[in-house]
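Please check the following for our workbook:

***
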Amino acid sequence: MNLLTSAAVPLILTLTALIALSHQIDLHSALIKGAQDGLTILLRIVPNLICLMTAISMLRASGFLDWMAEICAPMLKPLGIPPETLPLLLIRPVSGSGALGVGAELISTYGPDSLIGRTVAVMLGSTETTFYTISVYFGAAGIKKTRYALPAALCADLTGFVAASLAVRIFFG
């Protein structure tokens, strides 16, 4: 590891402390206030996370994700998305850890250098855990009505999936 990488965090912390001191800011009080605010936000977020994780576990255990994969597979071919990636497409908007598990399973099944393995890797980097993000950030901000945020975010996810698949086909054929 190079010296700059090793020293980056200590340098940033030292620089922040020096700037705070030069502006006569009580660093300890600011740190404690930030920690209190963080805990307050955590208390608002946790119930949403518990509900989300419970729903994911129920969908996975019930076989619903496998059933949806069978139904949606014919629609994926015109979009250029390998049907084998459908479990990832279904779980990614809901759960990042679930998507990593599905992605790891697909990569171990098809290989990291296969078209499917590369597509899965690019899809994981090109999309977001939409429901998680909306529940956490909107929950933390106290927003109850998401209005167009969810449909727009799901369209962005679909665009990310299609673009990831296209990019892998273009660059890795």
Remarks:
- DSSP finds eight helices and no strands in the chain.
- Residues 44-172 form one domain.
- Residues 106 and 140 are 34 Å apart (CA to CA).
- Residues 27-62 form the longest helix (36 residues).
